């Protein structure tokens, strides 16, 4: 058995067309409804209603609503971060903002330098960009190469029972990608460090989509990990109901049936493009490559 994933039969043209239509539907964004948000003169987010109105009413420091966007400013990043945190917490207290996690993500500039940390629940209302790690788990069986796919717990607040990558989770403020990979790998799948040794980032893919809470913008750091035959993932944090080792036809069927979470769908298709399941000369491949190029 070879250790390089190989899939001899690609998805057919009809399947690729259906997948493209699914992606275009799920990742559609009405740009006209998104107002650029500038924080201390840097373009860092986007505002949609009703969050635009909430910001204009509640921001306590310097504010300008101009034709090119909304400009919020404070004397320094610490003051601005405190004001955003307090504003978002006020929305949560009033029942406007659900899903408060008491976890903070880093807000970064265009070069990836962290500016400040903010409650993760506030990222979508403000259209801020976060980061996450995703692991495509692959294993070779007697029937060929397969994907390890997780089914989320039915008790999850977000996307219960949906299908996910072997591992997927956000980067906390101040956390390195490799540390998040190890932490999430163990928490979600019981991955020992030796199975992650030498794991290299395969792609950095932009997930951009409208959500009820605002705008989801997240860089997906996608890793592929080849796992030993006979090894079975074991969830540690109660967030996964089961793991399934699925061949490509079953993965394709689940994707087309809408069973995958959005970002897991994107990360899985990224691997499908990499290993030839998505033919390189299809419009679907062009769409997926553009997501990679935007992350470049």
UniProtKB/TrEMBL annotation:
Keyword check for Hydrolase: yes
Q: Which InterPro entries match?
A: NUDIX_hydrolase-like_dom_sf (IPR015797), NUDIX_hydrolase_CS (IPR020084), NUDIX_hydrolase_dom (IPR000086)
Q: Which PROSITE patterns match?
A: NUDIX, NUDIX_BOX
Gene Ontology molecular functions: hydrolase activity
CC cofactor: Mg(2+)
Start and end of every Nudix hydrolase domain? Answer: 125-269
Q: Which UniProt keywords apply?
A: Hydrolase
Superkingdom field: Bacteria
Task: State whether keyword Hydrolase applies.
Answer: yes
Q: What is this protein called?
A: NUDIX domain-containing protein
This protein's species is Neisseria shayeganii
């Amino acid at each position: 058995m070879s250790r390089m994933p190989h899939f001899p039969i690609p998805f057919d043209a009809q399947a690729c067309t259906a997948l493209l239509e699914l992606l275009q539907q799920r990742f559609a964004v009405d740009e006209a409804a998104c107002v650029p948000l500038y924080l201390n003169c840097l373009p860092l987010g986007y505002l949609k209603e009703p969050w635009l109105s909430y910001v204009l009413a509640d921001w306590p420091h310097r504010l300008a609503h101009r034709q090119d966007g909304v400009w919020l400013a404070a004397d320094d990043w610490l003051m601005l971060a405190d004001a955003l945190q307090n504003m978002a917490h006020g929305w949560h207290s009033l029942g406007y903002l659900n899903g408060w996690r008491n976890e903070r993500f880093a807000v970064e500039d265009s070069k990836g330098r962290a500016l400040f940390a903010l409650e993760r629940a506030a990222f979508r209302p403000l259209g801020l960009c976060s980061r996450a790690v995703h692991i495509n788990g692959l294993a070779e069986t007697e029937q060929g190469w397969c994907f390890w796919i997780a089914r989320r717990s039915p008790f999850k607040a977000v996307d219960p029972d949906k299908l996910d990558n072997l591992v997927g989770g956000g980067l906390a403020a101040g956390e390195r990608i490799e540390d998040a990979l190890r932490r999430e790998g163990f928490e979600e799948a019981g991955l020992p460090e030796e199975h992650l040794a030498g794991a290299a980032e395969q792609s950095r893919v932009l997930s951009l989509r409208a959500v009820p809470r605002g705008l989801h913008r997240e860089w997906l750091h996608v890793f592929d990990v080849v796992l030993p035959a006979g090894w079975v993932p074991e969830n540690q944090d109660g967030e996964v109901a089961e793991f399934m080792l699925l061949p490509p036809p079953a993965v394709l069927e689940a994707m087309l049936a809408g069973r995958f979470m959005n970002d897991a769908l994107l990360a899985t298709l990224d691997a499908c493009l990499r290993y030839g399941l998505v033919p390189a000369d299809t419009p679907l491949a062009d769409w997926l490559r553009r997501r990679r190029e935007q992350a470049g």
